[in-house]
Amino acid sequence: LMMSDLNIKVAKLFIFSLMDLVVNRLGRYFGILILINVASRETIGILGIATGYLAFLGYLAIAPEQILLRDYPKGKHETRNLEISAFGNFWAIRSVLTLLVGIVIFLVLRDENLILAIVFIGLLIQRLLEGFTNLAQLVFYVDFKQDTVVKINFFNKRFLLIAFLLIFLYQSIYTYVAILILAQFIFCIIWSM
């Protein structure tokens, strides 16, 4: 069978998207493996509870930027920059609101378990930064630049895994959260270039 240029392009984009998914999943898997081998049960429990509180905040994670994936191929290129700017503003407003709710949760938790409260707010900051990188990646996907997304994410995951090796030296839940925040901040800088 002879494949048309469009079919070849779609196949390449699919392969790059699949590679991106695999790189992200493996990165998370190896990061968790490192953490499990170093952290105590109590630390894993604190992370689990903090993640549970983050799941509650997931209800605020409305993502209208996904409209870009639906509308951009339909010829609405002339409003693209305006839409991206509007979605960036929406991300900022959503992040501030989520952070405010997160601060209320932090204030409630800190009296009962200060470590849990600090880990929760740290993971929340990392998640908000991740929202920015997701928006930036979406723009690349809309522009059919999945290969760029894969390359950047591959670098980012390698960097994060290397940073996770610090947990062997500094066995602390704070080290883990600090690595997540710092790495995500660096990823935001990379994606905004």
Report on this structure.
With 193 residues, this protein is an all-alpha fold. The protein is built from eight helices and no strands. The model has no long low-confidence stretch (mean pLDDT 83).
Question: Keyphrases for this structure?
Answer:
about 190 residues; mainly alpha; about 85% helix; globular; 8 helices
What's this model, at a glance?
With 193 residues, the protein is mostly helical. It has helices at residues 5-38, 41-57, 67-71, 80-112, 114-142, 146-164, 166-169, 173-192.
Write the layout of secondary structure elements.
Layout: H1 5-38, H2 41-57, H3 67-71, H4 80-112, H5 114-142, H6 146-164, H7 166-169, H8 173-192
Helix pairs in contact: 1-6, 2-5, 4-5, 5-8, 6-8
Please work out how many helical segments DSSP would assign: 8
Question: Main β-sheet, in a few words?
Answer: none
Order of helices and strands: HHHHHHHH
What is the SS-derived class? mainly alpha
Kindly state the number of beta strands: 0
Radius of gyration, taken over Cα atoms and rounded to an integer in Å: 19 Å
Separation of the first and last Cα atoms? 41 Å
Strand content: under 5%
What are the segments in which pLDDT stays under 50 over at least 5 consecutive residues? none
Please tell me the overall pLDDT.
83
Shape: globular
- Oligomer category: single chain
Helix content: over 70%
